[in-house]
Structure formats: structure tokens, C-alpha cells
Design a protein that fits this description.
CATH superfamily of the largest domain: Protein of unknown function DUF192
CATH architecture of the largest domain: Sandwich
Number of strands: 7
Helix content: 10-25%
Strand order of the largest sheet: 5-4-6-3-2-1-7
Shape: globular
CATH class of the largest domain: Mainly Beta
Radius of gyration: 19 Å
Number of domains: 2
Distance between the termini: 47 Å
Structural class: alpha+beta
Length: 146
């Protein structure tokens, strides 16, 4: 579609405002989980497709960000790092919201990381964030979707 002289800058400004507003809405919609005094803004992966994709291909993950994997039923859900270039830490979380165990995962590895008990959630964050914040097994995670 042709555009009139002078309308392109206005169109670009409108597009920039729309995108900025969308980013603000997306950021506001990201749930926040709390573990003790620590907060993590998370993306939710609650479908088989989203869980399979996870953080693959991501090159940046901020210290207060993460991805929460939500499973329909508790089980021994395992994780690996194929096609994931970031080193991550994972918290395996039971149905009651307690951290069952923690693990560090190396980039682009097919090593399987499995919880020792049935879990309903898993939280991936930048590697070392749990240790740096003193987050340990048996701590309660608040803000989990039911």
C-alpha cells in the first residue's frame, strides 16, 4: 500500500508505541514467583510444545528471570540442555510447592537431569542464582499456578 509523503514517520512512531506497549503488557503479565525474600519473573511453559522448546536458542537470561515448567500431573519429569546455549540451574518442585532438589545443567548437553521424587513444576534460572541467593531444597515456592 502506498503511503503519503510525511506519513511514514508517523506510522513508525505509532508502530514503536504499539510495540513498546505490547512489551509492557507482556512484562506485566509475566508471573512472579517468590522463594523466601527472592523474586523471579517467569515465563510459563505449560503445554507439551512449550515445555519441549524451553529456553532453547536463548542467549540472555537476566538474574531475576526464569522459565517455569508446569506439568498436568506430578511425575519424574527429566530435563536436558540440547540446543540451549546458556548454563542453567533447575529447581525441581513438588505439587505442594516445595523444592525437592536442585541441579546445575551445562549448555548444549544431552545429560538427563531427573528429580528423585515426583514433581509438578521445574524452575530454570541462570546458573548459580539459587546458590548465590541461598536457595536450598525444602524451601517453599510461592506464586505457582495451580
Amino acid at each position: 500500500m502506498p503511503c503519503r509523503a510525511g506519513s511514514a514517520p508517523r506510522l513508525l512512531q505509532a508502530l514503536a508505541l504499539l510495540l513498546a506497549g505490547g512489551a509492557a503488557v507482556a512484562e506485566a503479565a509475566a508471573p512472579t514467583l517468590h522463594i523466601g525474600p527472592h523474586a523471579f519473573r517467569v515465563e510459563i511453559a505449560d503445554t507439551p510444545r512449550e515445555r519441549a522448546r524451553g529456553l532453547m536458542g536463548r542467549t540472555i537470561l537476566h538474574a531475576d528471570d526464569g522459565m517455569l515448567f508446569v506439568f498436568e500431573q506430578a511425575g519424574r519429569h527429566c530435563f536436558w540442555m540440547r540446543d540451549t546455549p546458556l548454563p542453567l540451574s533447575i529447581a525441581f518442585i513438588d505439587a505442594a510447592g516445595r523444592i525437592a532438589s536442585l541441579a546445575d545443567m551445562q549448555p548444549r548437553s544431552e545429560t538427563r537431569h531427573c528429580p528423585g521424587v515426583d514433581i509438578r513444576y521445574a524452575l530454570e534460572v541462570r546458573q548459580g542464582e539459587f546458590m548465590r541467593r541461598g536457595i536450598t531444597p525444602r524451601m517453599q515456592v510461592d506464586g505457582l499456578p495451580r
